[in-house]
């Protein structure tokens, strides 16, 4: 019976492994989008399987007060930040990111 409990504990630990490997982005600039629409960028210092992130030299991109879906040119320096993984929606490298046209829209 004790062996079965140990096997169950090992299986539970395996299930908690992250499907996303962020180790290649450690010490590199990344951009993060959060639930609720906030965005920031910073140097990834650490992470865990729940996608809690530690960012250094973090900059938040502020939204235009007149148009809440557009970002203004204003930013706010936050410094060292711990980002809760449950609110992270998107993580991408700051370098090498480019906007592309939507391939699903009909061409004119």
Automatic annotation (TrEMBL):
<dbReference type="GO" id="GO:0005688">
    <property type="term" value="C:U6 snRNP"/>
</dbReference>
<dbReference type="GO" id="GO:0003723">
    <property type="term" value="F:RNA binding"/>
</dbReference>
<keyword id="KW-0694">RNA-binding</keyword>
<keyword id="KW-0508">mRNA splicing</keyword>
<dbReference type="InterPro" id="IPR010920">
    <property type="entry name" value="LSM_dom_sf"/>
</dbReference>
<keyword id="KW-0507">mRNA processing</keyword>
<dbReference type="Pfam" id="PF01423">
    <property type="entry name" value="LSM"/>
</dbReference>
<dbReference type="InterPro" id="IPR047575">
    <property type="entry name" value="Sm"/>
</dbReference>
<keyword id="KW-0539">Nucleus</keyword>
<dbReference type="GO" id="GO:0097526">
    <property type="term" value="C:spliceosomal tri-snRNP complex"/>
</dbReference>
<feature type="domain" description="Sm">
    <location>
        <begin position="17"/>
        <end position="97"/>
    </location>
</feature>
<protein>
    <recommendedName>
        <fullName>U6 snRNA-associated Sm-like protein LSm7</fullName>
    </recommendedName>
</protein>
<dbReference type="GO" id="GO:0000956">
    <property type="term" value="P:nuclear-transcribed mRNA catabolic process"/>
</dbReference>
<keyword id="KW-0747">Spliceosome</keyword>
<dbReference type="GO" id="GO:0005689">
    <property type="term" value="C:U12-type spliceosomal complex"/>
</dbReference>
<dbReference type="GO" id="GO:0071004">
    <property type="term" value="C:U2-type prespliceosome"/>
</dbReference>
<keyword id="KW-0007">Acetylation</keyword>
<dbReference type="InterPro" id="IPR044641">
    <property type="entry name" value="Lsm7/SmG-like"/>
</dbReference>
<comment type="similarity">
    <text>Belongs to the snRNP Sm proteins family.</text>
</comment>
<dbReference type="InterPro" id="IPR001163">
    <property type="entry name" value="Sm_dom_euk/arc"/>
</dbReference>
<comment type="subunit">
    <text>Component of the precatalytic spliceosome (spliceosome B complex). Component of the U4/U6-U5 tri-snRNP complex, a building block of the precatalytic spliceosome (spliceosome B complex). The U4/U6-U5 tri-snRNP complex is composed of the U4, U6 and U5 snRNAs and at least PRPF3, PRPF4, PRPF6, PRPF8, PRPF31, SNRNP200, TXNL4A, SNRNP40, SNRPB, SNRPD1, SNRPD2, SNRPD3, SNRPE, SNRPF, SNRPG, DDX23, CD2BP2, PPIH, SNU13, EFTUD2, SART1 and USP39, plus LSM2, LSM3, LSM4, LSM5, LSM6, LSM7 and LSM8.</text>
</comment>
<dbReference type="InterPro" id="IPR017132">
    <property type="entry name" value="Lsm7"/>
</dbReference>
<dbReference type="GO" id="GO:0071013">
    <property type="term" value="C:catalytic step 2 spliceosome"/>
</dbReference>
<dbReference type="GO" id="GO:0000398">
    <property type="term" value="P:mRNA splicing, via spliceosome"/>
</dbReference>
<dbReference type="GO" id="GO:1990726">
    <property type="term" value="C:Lsm1-7-Pat1 complex"/>
</dbReference>
<keyword id="KW-0687">Ribonucleoprotein</keyword>
